[in-house]
Specification:
The protein is α+β, with helices and mostly antiparallel strands. The protein contains eleven helices and eleven strands.
């Protein structure tokens, strides 16, 4: 691992300023993924800004980005009003990691794609060539069934699909001005040479997630399929929120995870449900319309 300076931030505003002003710096929350990337030499920062001692800055109706996944999963207000979010946080990794990993870190983590994480292979996101996962004979069982033109990485966040499904907003801090985004707009299609999948500017940090209770959000859930059910990254996941009255679906939000480089809003599946009695088979068929599976993940 490359030598680096280690800075302890007292608040997210000062951390953002330090990150934006540095030539090469990264933020560390729980660090469960960051340290792997540094050991693998995918990331080689000059400075690491530690956020663990920073003040948890969150207003009413917000969850601080520095909350651990365990705290989100066990939060009474979240469990009552946004069950998909609580369930997604509780499904992540192992109990040990959930007590260290943060909400913000889960949203901003890098893909688990082994071609991205191994500098010996070409990778569109690292700017070293085309996507190795798309090559003939590639080991792509755990990659996207909705790949972008030049990237087949799978988005790893548990919480992102759930937060999008319940209509959450993401509050960000940056020296040039703070902003709030719909959770769905936090992500963008991979770009050549850009490691991350978020729209965050250099130095910009997620400060908090804003949630507003609704009939839709209260009837939400999150399900993921893993090869090892005890703990593993999802092979595929889905967050669904339904508002049903008189046996008819009045509103629906369905978001897929781990099947594309970013979370996928399954609008065709939502359309297949709204205005009718719930029809899981129709929604499932609509959710995978347009999928382009690779050699080993159909």
């Amino acid at each position: 691992m490359k030598n680096f300076a280690y800075l302890l931030a007292q608040d997210l505003a000062s951390a953002s300023k330090a990150l934006a002003g540095a030539k090469s710096a990264v933020a560390k929350g729980g660090g469960t993924d960051l340290l792997d990337l540094m050991k693998e030499r995918v990331l080689e920062p000059d400075e690491v800004v530690h956020l663990g001692r920073a003040k948890r800055d969150a207003a009413e109706g917000e969850l601080s980005a520095l909350l651990t996944l365990a705290e989100v999963a066990d939060h009474p207000w979240v469990k009552e009003n946004f069950p998909a979010v609580a369930k997604a946080a509780g499904e992540a990794a192992t109990p040990q990691i959930r007590h260290v990993g943060t909400l913000g870190g889960n949203l901003c983590q890098h893909t688990r794609c082994w071609y991205f994480r191994n500098p010996a292979f070409a990778c569109f996101k690292r700017g070293t060539g085309a996507c190795s996962a798309m090559d003939t004979g590639a080991h792509n069982r755990y990659h996207a069934i909705f790949p972008s033109d030049r990237c087949a990485s799978a988005h790893p966040s548990n919480l992102a699909p759930a937060l999008i499904a319940v209509g959450a907003k993401v509050a960000c801090v940056h020296p040039d001005g703070n902003r709030t985004l719909d959770a769905e707009l936090l992500y963008e299609t991979p770009k050549e040479g850009k490691l991350g999948d978020t729209v965050l500017r250099p130095g910009e940090l997620v400060r908090a997630v804003a949630l507003a209770p609704s009939a839709l959000a209260r009837k939400s859930t999150y399900v993921e399929f893993r090869e090892r059910q005890s703990f593993d990254f999802a092979v595929a996941s889905v967050a669904a929120a339904l508002h049903i009255e008189g046996g008819v679906v009045k509103d629906a939000r369905i978001v897929l995870g781990a099947v594309a480089p970013v979370p996928v809003r399954a609008r065709a599946a939502e359309k297949a449900l709204v205005g009718k009695a719930p029809d899981p088979e129709a929604a499932a068929a609509a959710a995978v319309e347009g999928a382009e599976p690779l050699d080993h993940n159909r």
